[in-house]
Amino acid sequence: MARREHRRPRRETQAAAVNLLDEIKALNTSIMLITQKLKSFARNERILSNNLILLNKKITALKNRVDSFTAEGVSEKGGVSTDIEIMKAKIRDMDKKISSLEEKISSLKKKK
């Protein structure tokens, strides 16, 4: 009889160990998924920041070109004036896109 009583706690201990092992595996899987998501967030943030830098450079170059055309008085000529207006519209669109990208980056940073 003493042996049977001794076996029950061992079986219960084994069952508890198996349950604990299952929980550890589940937690490990969750941690690995979170790690993957953080890596993808970091990668996306780097991509967005590179895009912002590139767009800022393009906008600065366009603004400089528009300023140089205006300084030379080219904007007073008919055909070139419309080209400048088109460039200004493109610059405004790029500014909006940059603002949108900046908002996305800040929201990604907040999610971390």
Would you give an account of this structure?
With 112 residues, this protein is mainly alpha-helical. It has one domain. It is built from 2 helices and no strands. The chain has helices spanning 2-71, 78-111. It starts with a helix and ends with a helix. The model has no long low-confidence stretch (mean pLDDT 83).
Chart the SSEs and their pairings.
Elements: H1 2-71, H2 78-111
Helix pairs in contact: 1-2
| Helix coverage percent | over 70%
Largest sheet: none
**Could you give the count of β-strands?**
0
Q: Count structural domains.
A: 1
The topology string of helices and strands comes to: HH
- What general outline do the C-alpha atoms trace? rod-shaped
Average of pLDDT: 83
Unreliable runs, pLDDT <50, ≥5 residues?
A: none
Derived from helix and strand composition plus strand pairing, the structural class reads mainly alpha
Distance between the termini: 58 Å
Q: Calculate Rg over CA atoms.
A: 31 Å
What descriptors fit this protein?
112 residues, mainly alpha, 2 helices
Question: What does this entry show, briefly?
Answer:
The protein is mainly alpha-helical. The chain has one domain.
